[in-house]
Amino acid sequence: MDIKPLRYFIAIAKTESFTKAAQQLGVAQPAVSMAIKKLEADLDLTLIHRADRNIGLTDEGKKLLIHAEKIIQATDDALLEMSELKGLSQGEVRVGIPSMLGSYYFPPILMAFRHKYPTITLRVIEGGTWQLQKMLESGELDLSVIVAETLPDSLQTQALIREEMLVTVATDHPFSQLTKISPEAFFEEELVMFKEGYFHRRIVDKLAKACNRTPKIGFETNLIPLIKSITQQGFGISTLLAMVIEEDDELITRSFDPPIWLDLGIAWRKDSYLSKANRAFLEFVSEHGRYKRKT
After folding, report:
1. pLDDT tier, 215 (very low <50, low <70, confident <90, very high otherwise)
2. Which of 72, 193, 205, 249 has the fewest CB atoms inside 10 Å of its own CB, making it the most exposed?
């Protein structure tokens, strides 16, 4: 079987559109339509519902999608492994990094890696840890930073860094007079939070559920400078990693009582081939992470 129609089929399944799939693949739409019709004819099955511009997979199509993704992943892994027999002279690393780490922890590491391996292309995707984990599992990423406690069986991880989540308030906030903040006291305040899907938000939501409280969220944003600014002006309090707070931020941080620590790791799929470029990046990042890890 020619696997090209399977690539077209997967693109249609993900975009729910022949037009968008063709654009994503960089081919003409008629070529995509013809390839799918031939695939259906070869299998003697209808794989896609085509009704009033609404594209969806049939039950048979949903079953084929599972196998198609495995076939394409295995093929790509094999081609990559064969090409690497020539050595680490080129390659690509697709890595997912949560926004907070992408802004404050990773920039010097990424620049140092690029300096050491100038022929390797780095593609950094920022987002929420849940979104990045799903992209990793589906093969859209090679590596991703995730919160270790959420690790599914399909992924393998290597410890990277341990950071404390700190209650963050304006310098004149009453919490500045305390040494530790209880979750109950924290949830009495109006909060400035990341949007759903980000590890900070998931930890706060989990903490609220554990103490049977409903968070009073006044602002939702993924922009760290905006979170800091709103908090500085006293319109709410937040929680940020220690690495994010700088001396001139005019913010006070306090530990939760008990303290909340996040163990962050870099993960990859267990069943996929990890290229030489990715192994080089993994080793490089892990080496830097050891020196920065807190206990």
Report:
1. very high
2. 205
Asked, for residue 295, whether it belongs to a domain, the answer is no
Pair of tokens at residue 84: 């690497």
Residue 294 is assigned to a structural domain of this protein: no
In this predicted model, what pLDDT tens digit does every residue of 253-265 receive, in sequence order? 999 999 999 888 8
Q: Could you tell me the pLDDT band of residue 90, with boundaries at 50, 70 and 90?
A: low
Residue 16: which CATH number? Answer: 1.10.10.10
Neighbours of 151 (CB within 10 A): 14
In a domain, 224, yes or no: yes
Taking 90 as the threshold, does the pLDDT of residue 228 lie above it?
yes
Please give the tally of structural domains in the chain: 3
Are 147 and 268 found together in one domain?
yes
- Pair (25, 167) in one structural domain: no
Instruction: State which residues form the domain around 282.
Output: 89-161+264-289
Please count the CA atoms within 13 angstroms of the CA of 167 that sit on its side-chain side.
30
What distance separates the 2 farthest-apart alpha carbons in the chain? 73
In angstroms, the CA 209 to CA 207 distance is 5
| Inter-CA distances, 175 with 180, 216, 262, Å | 8, 17, 22
269 and 206 in one domain?
A: no
By the 10 Å C-beta count (0-12 exposed, 13-18 middle, 19+ buried), 13 is classed as buried
The size of the chain, in residues, is 295
